From TrEMBL:
Subunit of malonate decarboxylase, it is an acyl carrier protein to which acetyl and malonyl thioester residues are bound via a 2'-(5''-phosphoribosyl)-3'-dephospho-CoA prosthetic group and turn over during the catalytic mechanism. It comes from the Bacteria. The keyword Protein biosynthesis does not apply. The gene is mdcC. Covalently binds the prosthetic group of malonate decarboxylase. The keyword Phosphoprotein applies. This is Malonate decarboxylase acyl carrier protein. GO terms for cellular component: cytoplasm. It comes from Scandinavium lactucae. It is found in: Cytoplasm. Pfam families: ACP (PF06857).
Length: 99
């Protein structure tokens, strides 16, 4: 198991909390809590060692397409593919955008 902590500048502000996925499904779970500020703090626990570059690349792409919201993102990854990871992250951002 690897623990990764990342931080990215935020360009959007939401309110509320959201959850997508279930780690027990053999996939991943993403929890987002919105906050005021200008930073997205990310805490990842993953079963895939040496994956920091992959996570950085994923968040760089998300930041370029839609910008990232301020808050805290907690990810419990059980080896999900980058495509599934992106879907789960976008799901929580979409949910809080409608809160």
């Amino acid at each position: 198991m690897e623990h990764i902590t990342l931080s990215f500048p935020a360009s959007r502000t939401f309110s509320g909390k959201a959850l997508a996925g279930v780690v027990g499904s053999g996939d991943m779970e993403v929890l987002f809590t919105a906050s005021e500020g200008d930073t997205l703090s990310i805490d990842i626990t993953t079963s895939v060692d040496n994956s920091t570059r992959r996570w950085n690349a994923l968040f760089d792409r998300l930041n370029l397409t839609n910008g990232l919201p301020a808050g805290t993102l907690i990810i419990h990854d059980f080896g999900a593919t980058p495509g599934v990871a992106r879907i789960r992250i976008e799901q929580v951002f979409e949910e809080v955008s409608h809160a």
